[in-house]
Amino acid sequence: MSKPKAALVTENVIEVPDAHDPVLICGLPGSGYVGKLAADHLVSSLDLKKVAEYSSSTFPPQVSVKEDGTVDPPRGELYFAQAKEGRGVFVFTADAQPTSSEGEYELSDAVVRFAKKCGVTKVYTLAAYITGSFSKSPKVFGSGTSKRMVESLSEEGVTLMKDGGISGMNGLLIGVAALRGLEGACLLGETSGYVVDAGASKAVLETLSKVIGLRLDTSKLEEKAAETQKVISQLQAMADQSREAAPQSEREQRPAYFG
Amino acid sequence: MSKPKAALVTENVIEVPDAHDPVLICGLPGSGYVGKLAADHLVSSLDLKKVAEYSSSTFPPQVSVKEDGTVDPPRGELYFAQAKEGRGVFVFTADAQPTSSEGEYELSDAVVRFAKKCGVTKVYTLAAYITGSFSKSPKVFGSGTSKRMVESLSEEGVTLMKDGGISGMNGLLIGVAALRGLEGACLLGETSGYVVDAGASKAVLETLSKVIGLRLDTSKLEEKAAETQKVISQLQAMADQSREAAPQSEREQRPAYFG
Amino acid sequence: MSKPKAALVTENVIEVPDAHDPVLICGLPGSGYVGKLAADHLVSSLDLKKVAEYSSSTFPPQVSVKEDGTVDPPRGELYFAQAKEGRGVFVFTADAQPTSSEGEYELSDAVVRFAKKCGVTKVYTLAAYITGSFSKSPKVFGSGTSKRMVESLSEEGVTLMKDGGISGMNGLLIGVAALRGLEGACLLGETSGYVVDAGASKAVLETLSKVIGLRLDTSKLEEKAAETQKVISQLQAMADQSREAAPQSEREQRPAYFG
Amino acid sequence: MSKPKAALVTENVIEVPDAHDPVLICGLPGSGYVGKLAADHLVSSLDLKKVAEYSSSTFPPQVSVKEDGTVDPPRGELYFAQAKEGRGVFVFTADAQPTSSEGEYELSDAVVRFAKKCGVTKVYTLAAYITGSFSKSPKVFGSGTSKRMVESLSEEGVTLMKDGGISGMNGLLIGVAALRGLEGACLLGETSGYVVDAGASKAVLETLSKVIGLRLDTSKLEEKAAETQKVISQLQAMADQSREAAPQSEREQRPAYFG
Question: What percent of chain B has pLDDT over 70?
């Protein structure tokens, strides 16, 4: 038993891109899949190319079966494209979040170091702000690692957080960015926490595009957001029906968001 | 406290076999012991020889007492035999699954690397597909790491999975195989999840023998499967009796599989 | 997967101070924030300077949002100042306690080794002694790593513990100090465990100042303690009211400390 | 974050003793403190000297307060004495068991390796066999790593286990002994699992003394066993009383051991 223990995260670099004025945007699975949907939309709509893959012994020990019957182990993926006139865009996403604190720290650190080496100075993460109620025009909340970052969000209409915390990789990535000398900000889309919420993803991406000066086509997310809206309407209709049937005392115990 | 931490898995190689056209088959303890029973049957019926042992500090910290009164710590074991005309067969099994994600990844990685070094290009794992109901002729479900693997299963009557996941080493081993450049497939025998199910083991082995072109004598498993069937019949008889005694309302709450 | 696993704690030394007759005082977040409030008070009232920072992959994976809208990852911080005539004072505090045994041991070890290198021979930790009841003049309990330390506490009116244990970093730091050849003692302020308790912090600091011969201005803590007292009075008033309204049987189930 | 992670266990060797025909006996805290009481009795009655100490970042992160008001971190301790005419005796015990599988494996491995280096070929662990009922003359159960070891127990009246497992360090130590080429056996004293049981400790020590040919004075344990017996009698009296008061239907739900 003398071999040293292996690192928790393995980085497989496909290509170190030649990036100009690059920014790193991260969205991982979490409540409402707000960040993950947003990141996946960036990858497909901006036609990004994969530049690095991350495997980790702290990802959940399982494989997922896809529609075509094939399986994949959980992986982290870093994508990139250089806009001809404009910024280079890195997007980091993953199939799952690591199962331990140590795994989350090491994965965050690996991604931030790669991005820093490529010239990134600012890291944005996209996440969910859970309210427990459904909103037709979700607000975008935000926080940052410096006053300058916080002000840049505020200027674009972001509601600044004043307390609380941001858990998991979407929070940790900007914390680790700060430890490595970069700046970071997190944009959180208001969501109920009950459904996969493409509307919240669309809201954070629209805000992000203003903050970092990036042109984005969100039409596909709009379609998905419309689907989300249908699901929500059905849930509300069901809630209304059962409320009518329920006696008054029970009705008052219902959470406010159905009111 | 300056010594580096030891690796989680220790590999003790007994012999690196001279293998021709080898395949790796894995079955570990899990629901219904479907994979473990199948792997044990392969080891004894094909007269395989042990070629490597794996100990790990992530196996459950305990020893198991055997019928002869002696104890064994949990271990992983890799067996091999070269068919005179035909394929070399590696079988990996273990007394238990590791207790942490990291342990599962490292053990999977150690086994896959050894097999790859010996020329293995395809890894098959045998597992359980839990339905909650008893079936006299268990179906075999499957999934694979490539479309080619998935098709090879489909041709032999395997029902392809379209979603869900495969948890633990039986899923992870083919995921890690893919990360190491091999192909992998998992065959899952339909089982209730309530009893050790030799019938499901027999079903996955019969399918496996067709998929990889391996002659197998499953008569011993047939005996065990007949015992399983007796146990199931008794369980159903008991259920029928208590159902007759139970009032209607309770009866409807029973799960469908006794119906 | 061949890179060795990184250490759980990273030490970032800002300055190795030139310390005379130094002592290390530690207070980390825990019940009633007794130790953390006391440590923070020492840092601000003695005008200490940060000499080292500790990050750890075992801190909770999250960032906390501050009042100005910016975020910080959890961190450990070591402060120092040299009194002109008197002792050097190191104070260690952190935003959170590590999430695993290993993290707690490694962080304790890193801090103790740094302090030892700077000439520290005695380590004091400040913690909470939970009684479940509110007290206007909280007692100070204590324990130490040697009879000499225990006697030095006893001489200043500390109530010596005779059994039980001290969990987490506030206990572990003096245990690790002993393993490294230093002496240690823990001062525990009596507290209910229900509120952030500046009164208990003030009590342990007043005792500490006598034990180590350190002049301290606790007026700011006195203000906070007065606020704590108001909160407690309100809680008790609410409890009295609801007790009057409650039937006798329920009243007897209330905990003794409201009686 | 480039320093490799430290080992989980640190061994502090005080003296490598010159041992003749030595044997290693281990008893750690567990159910009924059977093994721990027995090990502590050996250390004091045979006047053993400490030869090594083990600290571990996987011990529970806390310190325990002793009767004299001082604290100790959890530690493992290895003791030794050479009988003038007879065998060398190593005894290993600890204040607690590690909190993770990995910690248990590494600690077991460190102790077994040290013992092997000193010429030990056989490892005995002392543990509890929980029955849920009180017995005035507790049986001793046993298991071993080889048929020879199992037979040597059987010859001295030990009831051989035929299935089940032995969890934790008391089981793992003989498993790891086998992995390192030594032989091992576990003696388990029958105990209820409800009280600290010196009677069971006495029973395993009397059997051990016959198995390894070691003269032992168990008079102090006899005193403690008498105290245990008093506590059990009181518990049974209380149970009898409450049984008389309870209606028949409830009485039948009581476990058999009060019958």
Answer: 91
- List the CATH number of the domain containing B112: 3.40.50.10900
C105 with D61: Cβ contact below 8 A: yes
Mean model confidence pLDDT for chain D: 88
| Confidence label for C86 from pLDDT (cuts 50, 70 and 90) | confident
User: How many beta-carbon pairs under 8 angstroms link A with C?
Assistant: 105
| pLDDT tens for each residue of A88-126 | 999 999 999 999 999 999 999 999 999 999 999 999 999
From the list D1, D4, D106, the residue facing A109 with the nearest CB is D1
* Any domain includes C253: no
Q: Which of C58, C63, C103 sits opposite A172 (nearest CB)?
A: C63
- pLDDT under 70 in chain D at which residues? 1-2, 239, 241-259
**Whether residue A3 has pLDDT greater than 90:** no
Flag whether A81 is in a domain: yes
* pLDDT value of position D31: 84
Strand ranges, E, within B172-254: 183-191
Question: Neighbours of D (≥3 Cβ pairs closer than 8 A)?
Answer: A, B, C
pLDDT at B245 over 70: no
Distance between CA atoms of D218 and D205, rounded to whole angstroms? Answer: 8
Q: Which residues of A touch D102 (CB under 8 A)?
A: none
* Chain A residues interacting with chain B (CB cutoff of 8 angstroms): 1-6, 8, 55, 57-73, 99-100, 103
Instruction: State the Cα–Cα distance between residues C209 and C217, nearest whole angstrom.
Output: 10
Chain C residue numbers touching A164 (CB-CB < 8 A) = 64-65
Is C2 domain-assigned? no
Residue A57 is given by DSSP the state T
User: How many domains does chain B fold into?
Assistant: 1
Residue in chain D closest to C103 (alpha carbons) equals D57
In percent, the amount of chain C with pLDDT more than 90 equals: 68
Tokens representing residue B37 in the block: 């029973």
Interface probe for B, chosen from A55, A62, A104 (most Cβ of B below 10 Å), is: A62
Alpha helices in chain B (DSSP H): 34-45, 101-117, 147-154, 169-179, 198-212, 219-245, 248-253
In a domain, D155, yes or no: yes
Report the neighbours of A using a cutoff of 3 or more CB pairs below 8 angstroms: B, C, D
Which residue segment(s) compose the domain that A126 sits in?
Answer: 9-217
Mean pLDDT of the region B181-209: 93
Locus of tokens 């909190």: D99
User: Is the pTM value of this prediction over 0.95?
Assistant: no
Q: How far out from the chain centre does Cα A41 lie?
A: 11
C5 contacts A175? CB cut-off 8 A: no
Q: Which two structure tokens, joined as six digits, stand for B150?
A: 């998935």
Return the half-sphere exposure (C-beta side, CA atoms, 13 A cut-off) of residue B193.
6
